[in-house]
Amino acid sequence: MFKLTYLLISIFLLIGCSKQTVQTERHLDKVPPITEHMVVVPPEPSSLDMREWLLPKKNSRVRGAPITHVMLHFTNNALRAPQDPYNIEEVYSLFEEYEVSAHYMIDRDGEIYLLVPEERAAFHAGKGHLLNYQDYESGLNDYSIGIELLAVGTSEEMLSIMPAEIYDSISPSDIGYTDAQYASLKELLDDILHRNPLIKSDREHIIGHDEYAPVRKSDPGDLFDWSRIGY
């Protein structure tokens, strides 16, 4: 019984794992793809220095709409390995295991990983809505670029996916975000906005997962300082 419970809890760790949900973002992406006629121009690839570590194609799909938003998340492996929550291979394996994804991931040292090309829709947003974009209802994957940062949120944000004793065993230095991550994220956002002119440089278009799905998610969380990236 304990092993079964542990396995079920582990599912919720990936991609803004701070609010309990019955399904992974991959299952929530069963919303029918956008089929209306529109011209989707693939963005130019980034020229930033980053590591290409592409996820399997089953972790994404052909994009069905123009890119207008960027969504920020946190992810970690703290439930399974609280003393080593940012082992990059283990975090990557969680994406593979649960068939979820983001376009980019930024590690604690600020290294940027390309996981899904921008011309494909990653499975990172799931079910949700934006007040001023009602026609995006539960379909933001098609309109957005997802960025994961390796981080752990507050105890309240993490409580739904891990017991308090596990959270308390995490090193304080592993809580929140690093200077290197903020610097790399700012550089990556500037690059994305330059190549995707439909994304406006404001908080209506650069959003957190918690703004799209506040009942399910709380990432990037209260420890994320939006002023560090100019918002």
What does this 3D model show about the protein?
- The protein has eight helices and eight strands.
- A six-stranded mixed beta sheet has the order 1-5-4-7-3-8. A two-stranded antiparallel sheet has the order 2-6.
- A hairpin with a 5-residue loop joins strand 4 (104-106) and strand 5.
- By secondary structure, it is α/β, with parallel strands linked by helices.
Observed structural traits:
single chain, 231 residues, alpha/beta, two-stranded antiparallel sheet, 8 helices, globular, disordered N terminus
Can you describe this structure in just a few lines?
The protein is of the alpha/beta class. It is built from eight helices and eight strands, in the order H-H-E-E-E-H-E-E-E-H-E-H-H-H-E-H.
Order of helices and strands: HHEEEHEEEHEHHHEH
Unreliable parts: 1-23
Class of secondary structure makeup: alpha/beta
Approximate strand percentage? 5-15%
